[in-house]
Each structure stands twice: as C-alpha cells, then as structure tokens.
C-alpha cells in the first residue's frame, strides 16, 4: 500500500503483522530519518529484537543480503533488515528486491530508504513488488499551505501543544527550513514540556534562545571554536539556564558522533557517514570527526553521567565547570577529569 508519512504508523499499528516492509523514499533527510526511526521503534516493540544494517552502494555484495534473509540468531525469532541506499537502486539491487518480495519471510521486516523516486521510477517492478506486501511512502517537503499542519504534527509527536498563532509564527520565522523548526521544537519541548504554548510563550523562548541557544553551542563544539563555547556557556550560567538542558542536548550530539565514528571504523566512507546528517551541517561534522576519537567519546560519556549527578546534587561540583570541560574536550582541548566528590546521604 502507498501511504503518506502520517498514515504509515497507524497502518503499522493496524496491519503490522501482515506488513513485510517499509520503503521510505525522499530527498529531505529529516523526513526519511524520522519515519525510519518511528518504524524501527514499532518493530522493536513488536518483538523484532535483532537488526542487520546495510549501507548500499554500487559495490555492495547482494549475497550478504540473501544470507541475512535466510538466517536468524538462536536468541531472536524476528529480525529487522535495514537497507540504506545512498543512490537509487541499480539493476542488481532491483533484481534482489524483486526476488525477495516474491516470497517475503514472515519473521523479517525490511526497512528500506532511498532518494526520491520520479514518477516513472515509482512504477517499476521492484517498487510494486514491495507495494504488494509492504508499505511504500514517498516523502516530500511540506508545501507552503501544508507547512503549519506539518509543524503542528511534529509538535504533537513531542507532546507539545502549540496554539494556532504560535504555529503560524514558527512557520513564518523558518520559511520552510525543516531542520530549524525541529531544533526549535526540541528546544521548546525541553523548556515547556506538555504545557500549552502561546504566541507570547514562543516569542519569549525565541528571544531568550536567540543569543546563545543550546544548538549554537553544538555548532561551536563541532567547529572547535573555544572562545565561542566559553561565551555561550558563560551566558547560560549567568542567566540561570538549566544545566540539565545543555547536558541533554550535548548527550544527543555525542551519541551522533559516536555512531559516525563506529560507522567509519566499520569501513563506511566519510561521504556515507555524513549523508545521515543535514547537508549544511556536514562540513562541521567532518571537521569534528577529524579530531575526535572513540576513546575520547568514551571518556566524555562517563563525564556526562557525572554531570547529571552533579545537577542532582550527588556530586560536589559546579555542573557548568564540568560542561565546559566536556565541550572543550570535544573541541580539541585536553580533557580534564571531573574533580568531584560523591555526596554522602
């Protein structure tokens, strides 16, 4: 069946046991990644405890895919096989997919992501083969008149309730920049939780965040801009912002960098690794990956656990000082240990 992005998850909830795959085709990274994340989470809840991930390029050995479809581990009854295409499927890929979907395995769920398919490509045999037993979703950026509705739905997914005027203001301020909208929604979710957000709330949040928003800190870290990092963290501390918020956002950034480094270590090219992030952020990540190592990430993750303890009063340490050390370490400065003492209760 062919469904829009917002129809996919309800369809999986209703027909999940009968659906063999999801094909998500689109050129807007966030739309593809978001839908794949939701489908992956659904599969895990449905008992698909094992997962094989394949990055597909022209040199990919399709025997690996065939072997994966024919084997389950002793500890798993269901498995996700994820196929990420950097380019449109070539003849070998199309043949392999047509062959598999002629008799799909009931204990496998295929998650397939590709660049957007043109109208003629959407009618090819391999797509229609998936269509028969799976879900096919062609993902397009929301058009101008669809944009407010898209923002509202994305807010709803984060348990945010935006009043109509707030949605319109957010749409006007971002002019179709999906990545910017998602950043601001994540920021609002951390600050306001599930309370209703009016236009006044949004204006206040944007004003407060416009100078030293936490996402700017992320960019400064990726760039290795020590002076800028220092200014941003100082401003957060002086304005009594939440160290928990900053630590949470940095944890997400560290997790992204860790996954990228693991993929590079597994043999993926830099181009493949960077294709998972927004195009305008790729130069920043490439610069960061050139100086950050997995051992450093491991140390930073330990420190971030301690920062969380410091914010809860379980360690005698100013969490902002610890955040500075983490940020400086990720920027290329030497990582100092967190000189803190556990609080005895």
Biggest beta sheet summary = 5 strands, parallel
Radius of gyration: 22 Å
Content of β-strand: 5-15%
Q: Tell me the CATH topology of the largest domain.
A: Rossmann fold
The structure class reads alpha/beta
Q: Can you identify the CATH class of the largest domain?
A: Alpha Beta
Following the backbone from N to C, one meets helices and strands in this order, namely HEHEHEHEHEHEHHEHHHHHHHH
Number of domains: 3
At CATH's second level, what is the architecture of the largest domain? 3-Layer(aba) Sandwich
The rounded distance between the terminal residues' Cα atoms is 58 Å
Poorly predicted ranges:
336-345
Helix amount = 55-70%
Shape: globular
Strand order of the largest sheet: 2-3-4-1-5
Mean pLDDT: 86
Fourth CATH level, the homologous superfamily of the largest domain: P-loop containing nucleotide triphosphate hydrolases
Protein name: DNA polymerase III subunit delta
EC number: 2.7.7.7
Family: Belongs to the DNA polymerase HolA subunit family.
InterPro entries: DNA_pol3_clamp-load_cplx_C (IPR008921), DNA_pol3_delt_C (IPR032780), DNA_pol3_delta_N (IPR010372), DNA_polIII_delta (IPR005790), P-loop_NTPase (IPR027417)
Set out the fold topology.
Elements: H1 5-15, E1 21-26, H2 29-45, E2 50-56, H3 62-69, E3 79-85, H4 91-102, E4 108-114, H5 125-133, E5 135-139, H6 147-157, E6 161-162, H7 164-174, H8 178-192, E7 196-197, H9 199-212, H10 214-223, H11 226-238, H12 243-265, H13 270-274, H14 282-289, H15 294-311, H16 319-330
Parallel strand pairs: 1-4, 1-5, 2-3, 3-4, 6-7
